[in-house]
Design brief:
Two copies of one chain form a homodimer. With 341 residues, chain A is of the alpha/beta class. Chain A has helices spanning 8-15, 19-27, 34-47, 53-60, 79-91, 104-116, 131-140, 162-174, 193-196, 198-208, 225-238, 250-263, 296-311; strands at 65-70, 95-100, 121-125, 144-147, 156-159, 182-187, 216-219, 244-246, 272-274, 291-293, 320-322, 326-328. Chain A has two domains: 64-160 and 297-324, Response regulator (Rossmann fold); 162-293, Rossmann fold. In chain A, the strands form three sheets. In chain A, strands 2-1-3-4-5-11 form a six-stranded parallel β-sheet. The interface between A and B is large, with 65 and 65 residues. Chain A binds a DNA duplex (16 and 16 nucleotides) through residues 5, 7-9, 17-21, 23-24, 27, 31-33, 36, 51-61.
Chain lengths: 341, 341
DNA sequence: CTGAAAGCGCTTACAG
DNA sequence: CTGAAAGCGCTTACAG
């Protein structure tokens, strides 16, 4: 049943050299004679030999595999981020293995598995983790970078200033004198810490402008169009005069857009809607969504870069990178073209 | 710089037992005395010990890690599938590690890395792979299941009958006498084999009904709203009388819906639009999309299940499972409620 | 119930 | 440029 896994010794025998030479052929090609190398490679190909990375890591005491956790694949929010990670990792000769972590507990389990695999480093999303996971992480000494979070990383960090993005969004809305009652929707509950950071920024900016800052809606749901629908409903009940809303994601914003069209609420005339994340969807809905572009690809690349340099000792713990953001102003929050007569 | 990784020997020393006993504590708890076990676990926790899975696999000659490749995270199409895989894997004491494979070459690289990691099995999407990857796969003897494909798997397979789904969709459209010019959109190019399977089924069903079957559009783009927009454009130029279209994904279908609303084309009155994949988006757009529900979660679970049972020798190579599909008929293809007067 | 011995597939120094 | 020796952290039989 168990198939004959070709080993380095098999290749060595076939090529008439010692295992060492086979090893060198892969790791230090320059150390072995052109001819010998060619013969080894040929035999390896013929036997379908794939070096046992795990065994190699064990012997060498190092690894070229980086582990990452993704909170969810429910939408495309992490698509470019993961691509950025993978491209950067590959460019440096590393492999990226991913584990899904839809809940804090799943993340703990993923972290444990990845540590068990002795990856070279770990990229996590956010700063909210199971306490046992934090302990393990610290004890293991494995470099870890936390992404999508502007501050508070345990080791390395990469992200953008979500508070600043929130403030910019509020100011953008305040430029339009029609926006008197502005709401903020965030998620609440485990795993939503990185959303909650937006709340104080939202309140501060409104307070600074002398506006009421009481319209914060804490959604129980993590994401989804339905969350938008229900949040809008709840907000309108609290405040029928609601005229602007900042959403936790573009999906939620799109859900609100869809619901507005069902209710006959005009966007942006009666209600301005801002999204978050610059999903592909954002420029496809009507009206197109104003949103926060997170430079996700750069963030992913920066995370891997940090990790690798940290592994080389080039970078101290506590280091973090701000990959910035951009506010994309589109029709869903557009000011009136011509002022009222 | 390199942190002190706690090893089994360290734990053994701390607990005053031999490494063997520590090993047994984890793998065969019943073999070690309650008291001893407790002490070992305590010391392990205190030292932040995480067993080196890689070393364990090497020694035991087996692995509890399953590898999977995902063609893309660009949209949510694989969300439930991956969840299904992960849940099933965890339920059986296995871990699932994922690698992104946006292209055939990336998939080859991922497969090589996963084989290098000596995973217990591999789950791939589709039957289209780099030839070198196929060779490696066969040589390695690692069980592999190919998913999202009804047939043609190299080892194990899981999927549903896409040809049958296509035919059902065509028949559904043909029930409505307004649908005279029906089009099919598919992707073309590397990695799109599983889309192309729909073409002959589409043609056959139309031919059987005595209809013209000339409206197949081969999109160069893999996915995305824009692909829908452009495909619609191209199709309308070829056939101004176009009155129904079957899309490769719900995203493409939504793109067409959005474009229709821009052009003032009424759906479903002037154009029926069918999607594929039952994404969350499908029931959020207006009108709601008729689509193919792929039982993705079941498919993912079945894939893992097959793999594990195959590893146990319970299942022969060549075995495959049909996880079925369901056609969800919604407003985007709805027949007229009351026939014309 | 507990442990000393050998080995998984590879790599690191170190000789030739 | 090539190779014999020791060891990475664990597990498998096998004794006690």
């Amino acid at each position: 049943m168990t198939p004959p896994k070709t080993t380095m010794t098999d290749v060595a025998a076939a090529a008439g050299v010692s295992p060492m030479t086979v090893s060198n052929t892969y790791k230090y090609p320059e150390r072995v004679q052109e001819q010998t190398r060619a013969r080894v490679l040929e035999c390896a190909a013929e036997l379908g030999y794939v070096p046992n990375i795990a065994a190699g890591n064990l012997a060498a005491g190092e690894s070229r595999v980086i582990g990452g956790t993704i909170p969810s694949m429910r939408n495309s929010s992490f698509y470019k981020y993961v691509l950025g990670m993978q491209n950067c990792a590959n460019a440096h000769g590393y492999k990226l293995v991913l584990m899904l972590a839809d809940t804090i507990e799943q993340e703990r389990s993923a972290i444990e598995a990845l540590i068990g695999l002795r990856v070279a480093g770990l990229v996590l999303v956010g700063t909210e983790h199971a306490p046992e996971a934090m302990t393990l992480l610290k004890r293991s000494g494995i470099p870890v970078v936390e992404s999508w979070t502007p501050a508070g990383a345990m080791d390395l960090g990469v992200g953008f200033d979500t508070a600043a993005a929130t403030r910019t969004l509020v100011r953008l809305l305040l430029k339009d004198e029609r926006r008197q009652r502005i709401a903020l929707i965030v998620h609440e509950g485990t795993g939503s810490r990185r959303f909650l950071e937006r709340v104080p920024a939202f309140r501060a900016e409104l307070a600074a402008a002398g506006r009421k800052d009481d319209l914060v809606h804490f959604a129980q749901e993590t994401d989804g169009f339905g969350a938008g629908r229900r949040a809008l409903d709840a907000l309108l009940q609290r405040e029928p005069e609601l005229d602007a809303v900042i959403c936790p994601t573009d999906i939620v914003a799109a859900g609100i857009l869809f619901e507005c069209s069902r209710r006959g609420l005009a966007v942006p005339d009666q209600l301005a809607v801002a999204g978050w994340g610059d999903y592909e969807l954002a420029q496809e809905v009507t009206p197109q969504l104003t949103t926060v572009h997170p430079n996700a690809s750069e963030m992913g690349a920066a995370a891997i870069d940090l990790l690798i340099r940290r592994g080389q000792g080039t970078i101290p713990a506590g280091y973090s990178i701000d990959t910035g953001f951009e506010i994309l102003e589109r029709a869903s929050t557009r000011e009136r073209a011509h002022r009222s007569p």
